[in-house]
Amino acid sequence: MYNRIIEQFIAAQKAAHAAYAAAAAFERETVAAVQDHYVSVELRSEYRTAKELQSFCRSLAGGVVNRARREFAPCGARLDIANQDEYERAGLDIDAALKAGKIPDIDGLWASMARRYGGHGGAELAYQQAAQRIISGFGLNRRREVQRTASAVVLRKPVISEACYRRSSRKVGYYSCQSTADCLSGLATFAAKAGHHLLAAGLNRVNVHDVEYNYREKHSYPGLDIVFFKEAWEFKVSHQVADDLLLFLGEYGEAFMQEAA
């Protein structure tokens, strides 16, 4: 399927070149006295044509990996797949194939990812990645006791904040944005997997680049309260949700907990 798309693109390039060549020839015949550097119709060089094909193939391959991220991720989860890793697994070398005059095997790339992530493969990896983001975000390990109160389990995420321009509220600092977004994404994936769909939906709506808050302000979600401090966010997880979270981390994050210990 994808290889045929490349074949169609190459055919379109050839047809376009032939059409421009015919137009250029007609211009020269019609205005016989015109010098070459005054000809209006410009023919694309072989180098530019080759670069266009290379760019198209790279874009197509990237789109195939994006498709895998969407289709093989479980509902409500994020699946991280590195383009270059998948190219290497599939034996795809776009530049080498084009230099050899061959069609890059994008169909082979898709088949490789379908074998690896199809069935439960993508879901298992997505849940493992979510567990790793949660463990990393809260600095969890086997030696660290989590704080328990009568109503909740308390997890603390370091989040450096900065003052909002001309406002008393605060926002997530630049260097804390990615780690905070990753942690929230991991929690949302867990919540969806455990059946806490309202919690998952609420966490997925949090945009760390837009959220503003005041010191000790609290945002509440089903089974979770987040309290904001200047250098941390405190997650107060209800016992029911916390029990499910521990089961999730035990099933999908065991290896990461051992590494963090």
List keywords for this structure.
single chain, 261 residues, alpha+beta, 2 domains, 5-stranded antiparallel β-sheet, 3-stranded antiparallel β-sheet, 10 helices
Task: Give a structural overview.
This protein has 261 residues and is of the alpha+beta class. The chain has helices at residues 2-30, 46-71, 83-90, 94-99, 106-117, 121-138, 177-194, 197-204, 239-252, 254-260; strands at 147-148, 152-158, 161-163, 170-172, 212-213, 218-221, 224-228, 232-238. Helix 1 (2-30) packs antiparallel against helix 2, helix 2 packs parallel to helix 5 (106-117) and helix 6 crosses helix 7 (177-194). It is elongated and about 90 Å long. The model has no long low-confidence stretch (mean pLDDT 92).
